[in-house]
Amino acid sequence: MDLLLLSNSTQHGQGYLAHALDTVTEFLPSGARLAFLPYALAHHDAYTERVRGALEGSGITVRGVHESGDPLVALADADAVFVGGGNSFRLLSALYRTGLRDALRTAVRAGLPYMGASAGTNMAAPTLRTTNDMPIVQPPSFETLGLVPFQINPHYLDPDPLSTHKGETREERLTEFLEENDVPVLGLREGSWLRVSGERATLGGERPARLFTRGAEPRELPAGSDASHLLTVGAAFDTPTRRTA
After folding, report:
1. pLDDT for res 236
2. Residues that are catalytic
3. Quick one: residue 111, left, alpha or beta (phi over 0 = left, psi -120 to 50 = alpha)?
4. How many other CB atoms are found less than 10 A from the CB of residue 15?
5. Of 142, 148, 147, 169, which is closest to residue 158 (Cα–Cα)?
6. What's the pLDDT score for residue 166?
7. Can you give the residue ranges of every domain in the chain?
8. d(Cα 127, Cα 212) in Å, to the nearest integer?
9. d(CA 16, CA 29)
């Protein structure tokens, strides 16, 4: 498989995809017909135009899958696919409703390049359980595409030692996930991404990632790190750690 999984599509002070544009255009085939899935946001036409504005200057033709009569045909006619960010629950519901969930899994596993950002990156993991989003709709299942065997947490935020907010930090929430599931979680900070090419996975971008695994302290993985070992991990969901009195 050929994957580019971005933590975010918009970086503070920069235009849409500008912070990763060189990586994106290197990843996509030259002159590609890019199928864009805008379902994570409500306004599909406006979202698609935003992506066009960012990529068509690089020779990429952007086609929203909603613009044709059949999104499955639009996907089949594409040279690559981009699943944009927004609300992950709304996105996953749309993938089930349109039949794109199964079609995407089949096409990407057969070699179609897949680019995701934020919610689109969440879709590449086995389930939706490590998203930051509010469940504004209820999808038929939490099962996503399972293109990688581990979980991803885009927009990962480090705890702020000066904050007076007493709610859970992101680290605490991911620790809770690992109490119930034995699956690694890769926290992607803003401006970072994961590139998967066949059996090789490499971290890229401006900042290190943070890897959470059950029974161990979180580890920092600098940009440029080889993360290929994550492609061979086992995933055990609903396997709580032993409770003690």
Report:
1. 95
2. 118, 133, 155
3. left
4. 12
5. 169
6. 66
7. 2-232
8. 16
9. 20
Number of residues that this document lists for the chain:
245
- In this predicted model, what pLDDT tens digit does every residue of 183-209 receive, in sequence order? 999 999 999 999 999 999 999 998 999
Tell me how many helices (H) and strands (E) the chain has.
7, 11
How far apart are alpha carbons 158 and 141 in whole angstroms?
29
- Structure pTM? 0.96
Q: Is the pLDDT of residue 47 over 90?
A: yes
Q: Domain 2-232 has what CATH class?
A: alpha beta
Asked if 104 and 81 touch (Cβ cutoff 8 Å), the reply is: yes
Give ∠ CA 210-214-219 in degrees, rounded to 5. 25
Beta strands in the chain (DSSP E): 2-6, 33-37, 61-64, 80-83, 114-117, 151-154, 185-188, 192-197, 200-205, 209-212, 219-221
- Check residue 168 and give its pLDDT: 84
Give the tokens for residue 14.
């920069």
